[in-house]
Amino acid sequence: MQAWLEKIGKMFQMAFIDGDRWKLYIEGLGVTLEIAFFAAILGLAIGTVVALMKLSVTRNGKKTIWAHLAGIYIDIIRGTPSVLQLLIMWFIIMKSCTNGTLVAVLSFGINSGAYVAEIVRAGILAVDKGQTEAGRSLGLSKAQTMGYIVIPQAIKNVLPPIGNEFIVLLKETAIVGYVSLTDLTRAANQITSRTYEAFMPLIGAAVIYFTIIKILTVLLEKLERRLRKSDNR
Amino acid sequence: MIIVKDLHKKFEDNHVLRGVNYHIKQGEKIVVVGPSGSGKSTFLRCLNLLEMPTGGEIWFDGQNITDPKINIDKVRQHMGMVFQNFNLFNNYTIMDNITLAPVKLKLMSKEEASENALKLLDRVGLKEKADAYPSQLSGGQKQRIAIVRSLAMNPKVMLFDEPTSALDPEMVGEVLEVMKDLADSGMTMVVVTHEMGFAREVGTKVVFMDEGIIMEENTPNEFFNNPQSPRLQEFLSKVL
Question: Which of A19, A85, A114, B51 could lock onto B45 through a cystine, CB 3.0 to 4.6 A?
């Protein structure tokens, strides 16, 4: 028992204390959060615009050219692995850019946008058509009806799946090691290869991811409850 | 006020309106009845272009509103509509439901709109509900609010699409009461309904639609006591 505890202590020392290695996890986490945060914002913006594009119809109820373009974008993004998208962005599209973080944010943002677009579209479609008809019948324009009536109600619908998408996105950033960025996962991996001891760094990184996502989950639940309260149901 | 010329509406293969012609004059209360699937709701929804006609013309106040160049939002500001399912905005209070359109369309200031809304709410006996949300109201109350919301735009004509069909029986009366009141005030109204009592009492003309056309039209008295076409005779024998 004594020996076992000692061994654990030594592993911990190696993984976190020696050579101030704990700093590497913190720095890695910083990179992970930075990319995830800005990619989430970009994804939300792209997703909302693309959802509105995909829902757009002409006066005669036919799909617009914008709707077709949105469909193509979503098909391409969902039809290819995100690692590959990241590599294509890094080695081909933004070959001359040396800012890896920027490339990662763009790549993940564009990727997430496709999924967010479908979530937002579903959220808008879930709002009763009568709400739109009532708005339009009062003389409000399409945009006004969307902005004042439909979207505020759609936000409540989309909050749970959007939270889900953010969580997926945060974890998905673990692949940025492919474009030589040192995020939390890569930091843990590097420490493993330096100490020849995998257990502590990998489990440690897992615990950090878990904690961050748990905090995010609690915050999202709070927000959801607050929005429901204004329903006064 | 509204002239409908050879109106057609097709949903893919389903030819719902097959050439409707009608002339609605200022101050008239037109009640449209007919079996389900006869196209009466579609006809009403074409009048403010919630359904885009596939043929024919609709003239409102001297302009052809089926012309693609017309700004339909402007036209709709003058045509109120009340729906079967009320369609109050769930995310706003009753007060905001009523003032949203006049304020956002810059027709009234916030204060004017609120004052006007309270006056209208008082008229339908729901002044104390101004700060409630739609989910806190009964069906009859919701429909009275929906009527008020349309009236807040000072429309020239009010369209009613089966306004009492989704109500519990004991709430039908309170809504019809408000509609009668409105009719007495001189509003031009087009009402699709199954309430034959209302048609008889309030209508200046009753229109019978079947198979996508207007089959018969007459004053309430003639319409109910002396129906001409066999289809109408059959229909009346079922509903009366």
Answer: B51
